[in-house]
Structure prediction request, 373 residues.
Amino acid sequence: MISGNFGLLLPISGMCATMHFNFDYATSNVLRPNDNLRIYHDAEEYINASHDYKIAVFDNWIDGVGPQVTQDTFDRQQRVKNASNHVIHHAGDFQIAHLNYILESIKQEKNITFSSSAVIHEPLGLPYVTSVIWFPTTVDLYVKFYKGKLQQLTPFVPKPYYFDYLPGSVKHHRIIIADYVTNHLSDKVFMSPFFEPGRIRTPEEIEKFWEEGMEQFDFNSSSTAQYNGFGPLASHIIPIKIYNKTCYSIVAETTIYNPYSFYTEKLAKPILASRLFVVFAGQHYLKGLKQMGFKTFDGIIDESYDEIENNEARWAAALEQVNWLCNQPQNEILEKIIPIVTHNYRQMLNYNWQRPIEYLIEDLFIKSKFNKL
Prediction:
């Protein structure tokens, strides 16, 4: 065990709290809480504490991106930074503004590491780790609250529809997919009845969407739903009824930028449900997924669409694969995907998604002890 007196400040609110950040150092040969490591949740207590080396973890770290940052909060963050040897900035969300902030910080700050739910495809010249919070928040629902729900799925049985398409809010790439489905695959793809804003849904359409145990709610006024006794984000609920009438999933991700790929619950749900997916996002989304230990379906479909730089051309190529799958025998495809989706399910369920930050903290303490920082 490394000797020394180390202090670590962890946030107690915001997206990092959702991710828990309750680092378990019981098996660590580097750090021991209450031995050589003191963990703080109170900023003032941390600021006033004396240690050989101090690390602070921030979440939602750009003013104007995410929760509004007050002047008091900003001033306290500056005091925490001044009291720290190293700062880790973690962003649960990730937009182009986050990437621009990182690139600007390269010119100004030292002793800083960034973390988020995105894989950045270009070298930054600044320490960065991927720690995907939207995967474990979805997994936790089905491990802690909805045990047995996944066993209601029938992933390897042929279905009335080939694909589900549940896109959420209206965005450019989602409209392109919806238009293609409407014009070419309306009888083979189950599309959300809530996608077109302004159109009144019939009771029959609504009935197709609601899950058993879910109370109806207004998508326009709330992002949470009451579902089997709990109130999770509606987007995290696996649509078991729809999945049991469709074989595969069209995933239209939140962001479509090429420099990075942002991974959300939109992908976590089909992976937990053992499904093949075709993704509409930025370039190299599948490449980044493989870097995190997942497998994709390049031995079954043509996934070269992931390498196409132009958005419209990439999505057109992905739609070709959707169309191709809609003309293949379901039983043959479902048999081929079994080893891939089984691997992905296990990777999603068992991987510790905060481990990259945990290892980063250990490495910083080791390097500080040997004067390598």
Summary: Residues 300 and 333 are 8 Å apart (CA to CA). The first strand starts at residue 6 and ends at 9.
